[in-house]
Amino acid sequence: VTVISTIASQPPMIADELRRQADVFTDLVELQSKLGRDPSERPAPRDREARGHAPKFLQEPKGTDPHD
Q: For residue 3, what pLDDT band results from cuts at 50, 70 and 90?
């Protein structure tokens, strides 16, 4: 069994017992250079209103659904 988690966070995201029982334990810190992106390369967060899309339940005023 391979477990990928981290012990770098406080509290650790994995229990010591599970980490010891794993055949292979890989800390996310070891994968950061292979999988992570530089923060400057990340796209800017999109504003929910700027996208012009809201979930259907937020678009319809309450009481307009005949099933209410």
A: very high
- Structure tokens belonging to residue 19: 């980490």
What distance in Å separates the CA atoms of residue 12 and residue 38, rounded to the nearest whole number? 24
Q: Residue ranges of the domains in the chain?
A: 1-36
Query: pLDDT digit string (tens) for 8-64?
Result: 888 887 888 898 999 999 999 899 888 888 878 877 776 555 555 666 666 666 665
Pairing assessment for the beta strands 2-5 and 24-27 based on DSSP bridges = parallel
- What is the token pair recorded at 34? 């292979």
Distances in whole angstroms, Cα of residue 3 to Cα of each of 10, 16, 32:
18, 12, 16
23 contacts 2 by C-beta, under 8 angstroms? yes
